Amino acid sequence: MLRTTVRRDFRSVSTYRDVTPMGLKNGFTITELLIVLTLIGILSALSMPALKGFAATRRLKASAYTLRSLLTFARDMAVTDRTAHLVVFDFDNQRYWLASSETFDPSNPLTSALTAQNSTVVTAAQHNINTNSGFQIPPTAGTSTSQGPLTRSSGILGVPEPMEQNVTLTAMVTTHNGRTVTVDSGVAYIYFSPTSTSEEAFVYLQNTRNQVMTVTVEAASGRVRARQLTSQEIEMLGLETAL
Fold first, then answer.
1. Average pLDDT value for the chain
2. Could you tell me which residues are beta bridge partners of residue 198?
3. CB atoms < 10 A from the CB of 181, how many?
4. Can you give the residue range of the structural domain that contains 66?
5. Looking at the domain assignment, is residue 35 inside a domain?
6. What global pTM score does this model have?
7. Number of domain units in the chain
8. Does residue 162 sit in the same domain as residue 140?
9. What CATH code is carried by the domain that includes residue 212?
């Protein structure tokens, strides 16, 4: 009698143990997978605007910091070489570049951009190609075959720097001959003297989200700063619908 009872209990325990692993082996149902995929899609859709906004802000700041670096370099080169340097802005083509007062023509500022006629970079590049490949590239008409002295600024002198994608060079407010001038088209420039002084200037960069960065130059010291404007400052400047 006792033996029969033990066997029945053993069978019941065995049956219980066999059922439990089968329950654990069951995977996700189609409904559960669809719910998870739907949640992932909703979260992705909600995060996309934030990611786009982050990318737009990053490009705006990158453009402002690149411009700040070039302006600071122009100031340092003016002091080091004892020669005035300028940063020229082409608002129509959305670009800017470094120029030297020795080759800069105020009546035609665009000639200070990189061309085969006035750039030592082109001559140096042709010299390197001729030396390394053995092919001789005939000089462009009006181009001097002499390389000229290479300086710290030779590699970027006259080389246009384009704006980042969806970032616009909106306007520049500067002081020329004691007169405040606002420029939003054509060509303008910021001048750095060998004594590190400059002209007070404000350069405004704007992206498609109507965020604005300003790069400022102090007249007395030539120091350059960059910062992002608040919505109130943008409204005061009237830049909300500039793009």
1. 77
2. 192
3. 13
4. 43-113+158-237
5. no
6. 0.66
7. 2
8. no
9. 3.55.40.10
